[in-house]
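Hello Y.,

Per our agreement to keep a running log of every chain we model this quarter, I'm adding this entry. I've kept the format consistent with earlier entries: sequence first, then predicted structure.
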Amino acid sequence: MTWDEWEQLKTAAVENRSTAMQLNRVPDEGGTPAPGGDLKVNQQDLAAVGDAAFKLFDNLGKYGRDAWSISQTAAKDLSTQGFALGGALDHVQERWEKQLKTLLDACAHISNHMDFTKGAHAGDEYYIYGIVSSISTLDDGFTERTQR
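Predicted structure for the entry above:
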């Protein structure tokens, strides 16, 4: 690539920048804000996500290994009879077990995190209420002084 080609590419990139998509930035001043403003969540939403994660964790723990013993027996029988399918079935069962454990861990993490988040936000709400109510009390005190 020659220097002139490089300069042409840079110039073209600068010219196309105004029409390119830009991510991870705040809109320019005067732009239309997103409807609804900031991300909001309520306790019912957090509880529903945590509950769904717990139910999935519970059901996977109960039923996720139903085929384990049958699959292991079949894999052993096939291998004993000289079929390569026995080793393949055993491999699939081992992979399933690893993935099941990963999914169980993820469900437990989500459920626990939602419980933690509910508690943290409840504590924040209590703290903010205390601050705001004390400001209101302070404002009332100033109002009383100015009316005398």
